[in-house]
Write a structure and sequence with these properties.
This protein is mainly alpha-helical. 72% of the residues lie in helices and 0% in strands. The protein has 15 helices and no strands. Helix 8 (202-219) packs antiparallel against helix 9 (224-245) and helix 13 packs antiparallel against helix 14 (327-347). The chain is globular, with a radius of gyration of 22 Å. It starts with 11 loop residues before the first helix and ends with a helix. 46% of the residues are buried.
């Protein structure tokens, strides 16, 4: 009997997923190269590079302003600071230096790819290959996701953190009845997810913690005290990670003014209108509503794998998004794509539907993803 480690095998499903993610990467890199830096991105560059400069002038004010995301500024300034160090052999900073859009935006492209890979992994484990293909296809050709992944703004970072936080909590809950050796590493992973999500957006981590607690208490009714203890330990780890992102600098922490004010607590339709103005926004809302209709009409689809991402997708659009009211719409998309993928996986199961109906359902998924691809192509052409 072989005692070696099991081999990681790449099958057809992994190859298709890799191809979709490669297409996503090419689209994002094209947008990185052709979209000019916005004023907000440029300010983020200046603040981010300043955070990575070790020799600040004594007595100067913090480069952060209310609403800043520390994880965004760290990502924005990392590569320019490294490049400047290698160019000059010492840390220098000039507000007159034109930012390099590639160095500024590449970390956000990496997080967009990472989120796509995580979405594929979750959707495929929940709904097998068909659900994974639909969810990842919608993600890779989503104009709002592409825009978030190629701009130096916190939306993609908060989406990545929130998605990981919620599904890591669900994974921890599923292992609570197993020996402690199985779930201890996941507690640390959950703590890191909490800390990085908070560093990206405090509002995102608050809703993520609420959802994580609700799912853990529901999935482990006999271990609810253990669930709360795990959340407490993970929160402590998350707080440490959060403070590390700030470099334990209380001046920057105070200047960031992380709590949203009353203006951003209002539940208005403005954020939906703003999202629908982005190419593909209306199509993604229609896809979610169509999947919701199937969910309501067909009892077979009402199980936890579908219910969990649906609940998150219905709650997040109305959650205040820190100092960017439309940010919570961006956070919704990965969960919405997982839900739509789950509904398609149910409709494509051979034991329920066969023949012409199944072919029609498969065709609607192709049309849906194709329409998203056309809209993303329009976005790329306009950027050129």
């Amino acid at each position: 009997m072989s005692t070696g480690r099991p081999r990681f095998e790449v099958h057809k499903a992994q190859k298709i997923a890799a191809a979709l993610l490669l297409i996503f990467l090419l689209q994002a890199l094209w947008l990185v190269a052709h979209l000019p830096l916005s004023l907000s991105e440029t300010r983020n560059v200046m603040a981010g590079k300043s955070l990575w400069t070790p020799h600040k002038l004594q007595g100067t004010r913090s480069p952060m302003i209310p609403g800043d995301s520390i994880l965004t500024l760290r990502c924005v300034g990392l590569l320019p600071a490294i490049a400047q160090h290698w160019q000059t052999g010492r840390y220098e900073f000039s507000v007159y230096e034109a930012p390099n859009r590639w160095l500024v935006r590449l970390p956000f492209v990496a997080f967009g790819m990472w989120l796509g890979g995580a979405l594929w992994w979750v959707a495929r484990r929940l709904f097998a290959d068909e659900g994974g293909y639909v969810a990842l296809g919608l993600y890779c050709f989503s104009p709002p996701i592409l825009l978030a992944s190629c701009t130096a703004e916190p939306a993609i970072l908060a989406s990545w953190g929130l998605f990981g936080l919620v599904f890591t909590a669900i994974g921890v809950a599923h292992t609570l009845y197993a020996p402690s050796e199985k779930w201890r590493p996941r507690i640390v992973l959950l703590g890191v997810a909490i800390g990085l999500t908070a560093a990206a957006s405090v509002s995102a981590v608050v809703v993520g913690m609420v959802l994580a607690a609700a799912f853990m208490l529901y999935l482990a009714p006999g271990r609810r005290l253990a669930s709360l203890a795990i959340l407490a330990v993970s929160t402590a780890i998350g707080l440490l990670v959060f403070l590390i992102c700030f470099g334990f600098n209380t001046r920057d922490l105070t200047a960031a003014s992380l709590l949203p004010d009353a203006e951003y607590l209002r539940f208005t339709a403005y954020r939906l209108r703003e999202f629908m103005a982005v190419p593909g926004g209306a199509l993604e809302i229609v896809a979610l509503l169509a999947a919701l209709c199937v969910f309501l009409l067909w009892k077979r689809t009402r199980y936890f794998g579908n219910v969990a991402p649906l609940l998150v997708a219905l709650i997040l659009p109305w959650w205040p998004g820190d100092f960017s009211p439309s940010a919570s719409i961006q956070w919704t998309l990965p969960f919405a794509f997982v839900f739509v993928g789950g509904i398609y996986a149910d409709l494509l199961e051979r034991r329920f539907f066969q023949g012409r109906f199944r072919k029609h359902v498969a065709m609607t998924s192709v049309v849906l993803i194709g329409a998203s691809a056309v809209l993303s192509l329009i976005l790329i052409m306009h950027a050129s």
